[in-house]
Amino acid sequence: MGEDAEITGLLHDWGKGDAKAGDALTPLVYDELHRCAERLFRHENAGHTLQPTALVHEAYAKLINVDVSWQDRAHFYALAARMMKRLLINHANARNAAKRGGDDIQVTLDDSNTPGDSTDAILLELTDALSALEKFDERKAQLVELQYFGGLSVKEIEAVTNLSSATIGRELRFARAWLKDQLAGNDQVTQEA
C-alpha cells in the first residue's frame, strides 16, 4: 500500500504543477505501464511495427500534457489504458489505410488477409463492438476497457469506478456475453474479450 499512497501523492502534487513530482512519478509507474502495454501486445504478431516500449513512451508523453485532477493511482492507470487503446486503434487504422493504398483506389483479385492484417482487424472489430456496447451501456463498456485494455484488477476497477466487486463481476459477465454475441464470427476476439 505504501507505493500506492506515494504514487497518489505524487499525482496530486504533479496535478498542482510540481514538475519534480512528475519526475519522481515516472520511474514508479513505468514498469506497470510497460506491463499493461505488454498485455495489449500479447496477441499481436511478432512483426508488429509498434512495440510496447514505444507505446508506453507515446502514451506517457500524451499523459504529461493532460490537464486532469488525478484521483489516485488507479485513475492514472485507467487513463493510461485509454490512451494506449487510442494509440493502438490509430496505429491499426493507419496500417489498414496504408495497406489499401491510402486514398488511392485499388482493384484486387484476391481479398485474403496478409499475416499482419488479422490482429489489426481483430482490434478494430473489438473496438467497433465496444463502441456499440458503449451506446447501449456506457458503464459496461468502460469496465471492459479498464480490464481488457488497462489490465486493471477488479479491486483497481472498484477504486476507479466506486462500484462493488459484485457489481463489477456481474457487469463484466454481461458485457462479455454481449460482446461474444456481437463478435460471433471471430472466435479469437471473443476469447480475448
From TrEMBL:
Keywords: Sigma factor, Transcription, Transcription regulation
Membrane-spanning parts: none
Record has Transcription regulation as a keyword: yes
Pfam families found in the cross-reference section: Sigma70_ECF
Coiled coil spans: none
RNA polymerase sigma-70 ECF-like HTH domain span: 5-183
Domain of life: Bacteria
Record PANTHER family: RNA POLYMERASE ECF-TYPE SIGMA FACTO, SIMILAR TO RNA POLYMERASE SIGMA-E FACTOR
Protein name: Sigma-70 family RNA polymerase sigma factor
